């Protein structure tokens, strides 16, 4: 059995007091009802099994053979409709860049916890646990830095972490290019220009999120990241070899096996609303791990807060709303009910 006290002192000092906070929640009477096994929505089965996500070779998009290009685009769109998730290889982001980014990410998270919390590292972008949790089932065993892309180019933002900034500038640019390529394929499939999102999804609106999931002595009781959907257009995830990502497929949880050569792409709520439910924003979560810590980096393709999200075709499934309105509603729902309601709030 893994003994958390066996970790080096420096690692213990860098970890947030997740177990203490979880314990405090456990001693409180639940303020908000949470679903038990018998209270799950009809058709949802609590099962876990491995799945093989659709694996797409993006080099085919630049093939001189039109049939190959079209087949690749079709595979992207089909996976976005049937799974809401897919993996991409030959995506243009070099293994060396990913390794360099991971190295700097690990160095950042090994900063002492007190310093991460109190010294304003990366403009106070540090988060840990779930501040809004009112019961144990709403608590995530994780920590993160949520970084606006607009800040990546500001040297003062990074302070002593200048080597992180140097790598992140290159990494953010590569992820941005890939996200726009994929968004263009999805738009063109529905009869729109490839650049339809360019004016609203500018770099200043997008984010990188650096995640760490520490080893968890109570991994059977808690999630690394609680079930949720993403509130953006598109998310691209670079994860390590530890695994733990699960998604809802055919009313059951299925685990995604890590592929060291692949990035994971998932559809966000805005793409589902814009496409009139053709593309699916799928619920997913991260499992806690007793033996190994896990690292991942997510890129979120987001519009400006005043951007209007409307259906790309009629009749529309959802009423028009701005991204700012959507984000505010999500935050209000989480604060009031303990979980995200999301798109159902905006159904016509």
Describe this structure in words.
32% of the residues lie in helices and 21% in strands. By secondary structure, it is of the alpha+beta class. It has a single domain (16-23, 39-346), classed as Jelly Rolls, CATH 2.60.120.330. It starts with 8 loop residues before the first helix and ends in an 11-residue tail after the last helix. The model is unreliable at 1-10 and 30-47 (pLDDT under 50).
Shape call: globular
| Derived structural class | alpha+beta
β-strand percent reads 15-25%
Order of helices and strands: HHEEHEHHEEHHHEEEEEEHEEEEH
* CATH class assignment: Mainly Beta
What is the name of the CATH architecture? Sandwich
What distance separates the N and C termini? 52 Å
Helix content: 25-40%
Number of helices: 10
CATH superfamily: B-lactam Antibiotic, Isopenicillin N Synthase, Chain
Largest sheet: 8 strands, mixed
- Provide the gyration radius in Å: 20 Å
According to CATH, the fold-level topology is: Jelly Rolls
Mean pLDDT: 90
The number of E-state strands comes to 15
Question: What's the layout of helices and strands?
Answer:
Elements: H1 9-14, H2 18-27, E1 45-51, E2 55-57, H3 66-82, E3 85-89, H4 95-109, H5 113-118, E4 126-128, E5 143-148, H6 149-152, H7 155-158, H8 162-189, E6 207-213, E7 223-228, E8 234-239, E9 245-249, E10 252-256, E11 263-267, H9 269-274, E12 284-287, E13 294-301, E14 308-309, E15 321-322, H10 323-337
Parallel strand pairs: 1-10, 2-3
Antiparallel strand pairs: 3-11, 4-5, 5-6, 6-13, 7-12, 8-11, 8-13, 9-10, 9-12, 14-15
């Amino acid at each position: 059995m893994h003994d958390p006290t066996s970790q080096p002192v420096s690692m213990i000092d860098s970890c947030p007091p997740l177990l203490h906070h979880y314990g405090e929640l456990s001693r409180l009477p639940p303020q908000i009802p949470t679903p038990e096994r018998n209270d799950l929505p009809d058709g949802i089965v609590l099962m876990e099994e491995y799945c093989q996500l659709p694996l797409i070779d993006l080099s085919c998009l630049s093939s001189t053979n039109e049939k190959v290009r079209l087949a690749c685009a079709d595979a992207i769109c089909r996976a976005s409709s049937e799974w809401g998730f897919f993996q991409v290889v030959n995506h243009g982001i070099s293994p060396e860049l990913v390794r360099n980014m991971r190295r700097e990410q690990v160095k950042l998270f090994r900063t002492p916890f007190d310093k991460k919390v109190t010294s304003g590292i990366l403009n106070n972008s540090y988060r840990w646990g779930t501040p809004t949790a009112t019961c144990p089932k709403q608590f995530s065993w994780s920590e993160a830095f949520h970084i606006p892309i607009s800040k990546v180019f500001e040297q003062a933002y990074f302070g002593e972490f200048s080597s992180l900034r140097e790598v992140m500038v290159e990494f953010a640019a590569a992820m941005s290019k890939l996200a726009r390529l994929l968004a263009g394929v999805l738009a063109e499939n529905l009869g729109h220009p490839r650049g339809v999102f360019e004016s609203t999804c500018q770099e200043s609106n997008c984010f990188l999120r650096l995640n760490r999931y520490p080893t968890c002595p109570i991994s059977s009781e808690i999630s690394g990241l609680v079930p949720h959907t993403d509130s953006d257009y598109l998310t691209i995830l670079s994860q390590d070899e530890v695994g733990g990502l699960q998604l809802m497929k055919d009313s059951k949880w299925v685990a995604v096996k890590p592929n060291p050569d692949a990035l994971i792409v998932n559809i966000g709520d805005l793409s589902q609303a814009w496409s009139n439910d053709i593309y699916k924003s799928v619920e997913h979560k991260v499992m806690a791990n007793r033996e190994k810590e896990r690292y991942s980096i997510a890129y979120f393709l987001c519009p400006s807060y005043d951007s209007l999200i409307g259906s790309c075709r009629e009749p529309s499934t959802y009423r028009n709303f701005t991204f700012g309105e959507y984000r505010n509603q999500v935050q209000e729902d989480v604060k009031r009910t303990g979980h995200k309601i999301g798109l159902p709030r905006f159904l016509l």
